[in-house]
Amino acid sequence: MEYQVPQFIEIEDKIFGPLSLKQFIYLAGGTGLCVVLVLYLHVIGVILAIPVAAFSGALAFYKINNKTFVEILEAGFNYYIAGRLYLWKKDDMTKVQAPAAPAPITREKLGLSQGKLHELAWSLDIKDQNQSDS
């Protein structure tokens, strides 16, 4: 028996033209508040209505990293009111020592004499020339 698997479940249904229900409610609420501000406060209401309109537009349309503006506001609010635990453990500084610098590598440590080193350099030069010719 075959079943249809729903696809595109993350996309909200468009109910009011190109707007989803949430977008329509944000815009309708913002528009209503702007109308009330302009009708009752006149010039000051226009100044106050601009940030309200921008906020309602951001709630309806603005996304950050594929997260809606409402989710970002919720995460910021939860971070702000959440308790934080700060721990500090004092270390005894007399026990802490800087690591010693490693000793430089010399020819004597590698067991290379002047002759062996010259032969090795010459063989590497020959291999490099052969590889560039091919």
Describe this structure in words.
With 134 residues, the chain is mainly alpha-helical. The protein has a domain at 14-81. The protein is 58% helix and 7% strand. It has four helices and four strands; from the N terminus they run E-E-H-E-E-H-H-H. The strands form two sheets. It has a two-stranded antiparallel ribbon. A hairpin with a 2-residue loop joins strand 1 and strand 2 (19-20). The chain is elongated. The two termini are 63 Å apart. The relative contact order is 0.05.
Topology:
Elements: E1 14-16, E2 19-20, H1 21-61, E3 63-64, E4 67-68, H2 69-81, H3 107-110, H4 114-133
Antiparallel strand pairs: 1-2, 3-4
Query: What would the principal axes of the Cα set say about the shape?
Result: elongated
Neighbour order of strands in the largest sheet: 1-2
Distance between the termini: 63 Å
Instruction: Catalogue the unreliable spans.
Output: none
The beta-strand count equals 4
Radius of gyration: 35 Å
Keywords:
134 residues, mainly alpha, 58% helix
In short:
The chain is built from four helices and four strands; from the N terminus they run E-E-H-E-E-H-H-H. With 134 residues, it is mainly alpha-helical.
